[in-house]
Amino acid sequence: MIQKVEKWRVQELGQALNQLALLLRRGENTEWANVFSHFGHEAQNITTHENFDLDVLKRLAQNIVNCFDGISSLRKLVLNHENPRQMETLNQKFREAIQLLFEILASIEEKWTEPIN
After folding, report:
1. CA–CA gap between residue 27 and residue 60 (Å, rounded)
2. pTM
3. 93: CB partners within 8 A, 6+ apart
4. Measuring CA to CA, how many Å separate 7 from each of 14, 46, 80, 86?
5. What distance in Å separates the CA atoms of residue 97 and residue 101, rounded to the nearest whole number?
6. Residue 54 · residue 112 · CB < 8 Å
7. Tens-of-pLDDT digits for all 117 residues of the chain?
């Protein structure tokens, strides 16, 4: 089978996950920060293999998406900061980081669903 998902895309995913973890930590959400930090490590581990397991990547992507579904949705989370202006900036960066994460996931998913000619 041809490896359709480029390693750099998975590395980009790992960076986006680590950025989210950092923002969550700054916003006093240690539990979620640890979850995304763990996801970042998983993405990094995937890229250590020359031909990585697509099923492992698909599971990781599904686990990430699951964090944004349902009642305990991260989409509604507001990050805290003692300075209201910094809190606003932090939350704007958080929303942008989530948007980037989903763009990266979409580009990866597009690659693994692409038919091989």
Report:
1. 24
2. 0.89
3. 23
4. 11, 9, 34, 35
5. 6
6. yes
7. 455 788 899 999 999 999 999 999 999 999 999 999 999 999 999 988 877 788 999 999 999 999 998 776 777 899 998 999 999 999 999 999 999 999 999 999 988 866 655
